[in-house]
Structures are given as structure tokens and as C-alpha cells.
Amino acid sequence: MNAPLGQIVCSLLLILATLPGHGCDGNGRVSILVGAASSLRAPIERAKLLYSESHPDVEIVVSYAGSGTIRRQIEFGAPIDLFVSASPEHIDSLLSQGLVLAQSRRTVTTNTLVLISPVQRPPLVGVEGLRLPAVTRIALGDPKTVPAGRYAIEVLDHLHLTNDLKEKFVYTKDVIQALTYVRTNIAGAAFVYGSDVHSSPSVRVVATFPESSHSPILYEGVLVSSVPVRSEAERFLDFLRSDTVQALLVKDGFSGDFR
């Protein structure tokens, strides 16, 4: 078994071993298992608390990871009811396999892609500053599983910089790890979402990239075909699109502008 596949299987087994069963427990209490992109952790955790106030009999359990990793977990049969992805491509892949419900697909929010560097180091002058010998490591999510990493490669391809910089790339398991590498000065730069640096004073934004330089950064939610509590899962997905949660998303640096 190769290393990436082994990691996915191990991660899946961990989910199966630690998450409570989904659906109804026989006492009227419902558990909904959500697989969500790592960059959504802060707003979804707050949304869970708000949702529980008006739905005390519904338990929302969330597993955060790179969107591609969650997609593979669903393909392996992980008991996930609702998938919130940072890239439409992973939902497209699941749709082609009949593993998610097309009619349940919803856009939740949007984001921007930024280049950051540590505040401890001299400021970089734009993206061209990545060529400097002083920048030995550039952190970005693994493009195979992390949408932010794929968007970063698209930007660098657009700027004809990928081949010049690829020896400096350090691939991470998710966008949060890329942010951490810069915050701890392990990497001299990283590509992350604008929402990731919204409350990170230890990093500086070097550049923000226009939509024309990469695919649209859309966060979409979809129900998994095997969901046993469809109405409850769909209700929580709709709650993520509500004005209440959209205000949380905007506060955390997401655009929230999709309607």
C-alpha cells in the first residue's frame, strides 16, 4: 500500500472508531456527521453552537481535513452525512460516482487566495520576491487533496513561475498547516486563504490574487447519498447559508457573497 493511500485508510479507520453513530438513537436524538474543509473550522464551530440552541435534539459532529481527503474518506465509506468542500471538483467527482445527492448541492460561501510571509522576516516585494535565495521554503497545500494548493499552482502557472519555484515547495496536509509553517517561521512564504489570515497577526499579506488568475474559490455543501437523516442534514446545510451564519463567515474573512 503506498503512503498516501495508507494515510487515507488510517484516517478513515480513525473516523470510524471515534465518531458516534449517525442517524436517530432511538430516543429522538439525531446525530449529523459533517466532513468540512479545514479553513471552515472557526465559523462552523460557532454555527454548531447557534444551531444547537434552536435544535437541542440534534448533535452536529464535524471532522475537518483537506477537501480531497474527505472526498476519499466518503469514497471508502466513512459515515459522513454532509460534505462541505473548498472546491467544486471534489463534489463533481463524488457526483460522477453516485455518492452524493445532486439536488442537495448548495454554495455556502466564497474566499480569496493570498500569499503570506512571517512578520519576523523582511517584507517580500510581491510574488517575484519568492525568487530570492532567502526564501528557501514555500508552503502550500498538496494540490492533489487541498484546494488552496491547487489554486496556488494555478496562480503560479498564470504568472509563469511554477517551474522556477517548484524546488522550494513544501506540501502540507491542509491550508491550516501551511499557515502554521509561516507563523512558526518554518517557511518563508505560503499560499493560504484570505480568511486564514483574518486573525493572524504573526503573518503579513504579500499579495492577493484576482479571480482571473485561478478557478473560482467556491465552498459548496452536499448530502452524501447514504445519509439516514436527510431532512435534518439538509436543514443544517440551509442554516449554513442563512444570514446568521453568513455574518459569521464575513466576520472571519470569507466573502459570503454567493446569492
Could you explain how this protein is built, in words?
It is a single chain. By secondary structure, the chain is an alpha/beta fold. It has 2 domains: 3-110 and 217-251, D-Maltodextrin-Binding Protein, domain 2; 113-213, Periplasmic binding protein-like II (D-Maltodextrin-Binding Protein, domain 2). It has helices spanning 3-18, 41-54, 67-75, 88-96, 147-158, 162-165, 175-183, 230-240, 243-251, and strands at residues 23-24, 30-37, 58-65, 82-85, 106-110, 113-118, 138-141, 169-172, 189-193, 203-208, 218-223. Strands 1, 2, 3, 4, 5 and 11 form a 6-stranded mixed beta sheet that branches. A 5-stranded mixed beta sheet has the order 8-7-9-6-10, sandwiched between helices. Helix 3 packs parallel to helix 4 (88-96). The chain is elongated, with a radius of gyration of 19 Å.
At CATH level 3, the topology of the largest domain is: D-Maltodextrin-Binding Protein, domain 2
Given helix and strand content, the structural type is alpha/beta
Instruction: Tell me what portion of residues adopts beta-strand conformation.
Output: 15-25%
Describe the global form: elongated
Q: Span between N and C termini?
A: 44 Å
